[in-house]
Amino acid sequence: MKKGWMNNFLGGMGSKSRYEIANTMNRIRETSQLTVIANWNNTNNQGFSELQQESSNATGNTRSRAGLTTSRSLGVNFAKDTKKIQIGGNVQYGYSDNDARRKTSTETFLGEQSSYGASENTSRRKRHDVRADFRLEWRPDTLTTIIFRPNASYSKTDSESASGSDTWNNV
Length: 171
Prior knowledge:
- The protein has one helix at residues 50-58; strands spanning 4-13, 19-29, 32-41, 68-81, 85-110, 113-141, 144-148, 151-169.
- Helix content is 5%, strand content 73%.
- The radius of gyration is 25 Å and the shape is elongated.
- Strands 1, 2, 3, 4, 5, 6, 7 and 8 form an 8-stranded antiparallel beta sheet that branches.
- The chain contains 1 helix and 8 strands.
- By secondary structure, it is mainly beta.
C-alpha cells in the first residue's frame, strides 16, 4: 500500500532574536507523490538538516561565512505515473541575506613612539534564486519513448560594502 501523509516540523527560538522554522510535508498515493519543503531561519543554516551539515563538515565540504545569514527557502516536488505517461518536476525558491561587520583596533609601541589604529568593515549580500525542472515521459507504444525535460533558473544578487580606518600617532 502506497498511501499516506508524512510531516516533519522543526521550530525553535534562541537568544539574540535567533529563530528557525522548517517543515517537510509529503503526500503519497499509489501513482503520485507531492512534497513541500520550507525553511525560515537567521542561524546561518542554508536550509539543510543538522545531520547533512555534520556530514558536509566531516568530508571538508564547508564554506566559511562571516556575519549572520538569514535564509528562506520553499520547494515543491511532484510526480505522477500512468501506463503511458510519467510526469514530474519541482520548483524551488531560495533567499539569503548575509550581514557581516568587523571592527579592529590595534596599539603599537616602539620606544617612545606609539600609534593607535581602528578600522571597521561592513558588507551586505542579498540573493534570490528560483529554479524549476520538469519531466514528461510518454510511451505511446512498447518500442517508443519520448522524453521532454525543460528547466529554468533565475538568480539576482545585490551586494554592498564599506570600510574605513584611522591611525593616530604618539597617543
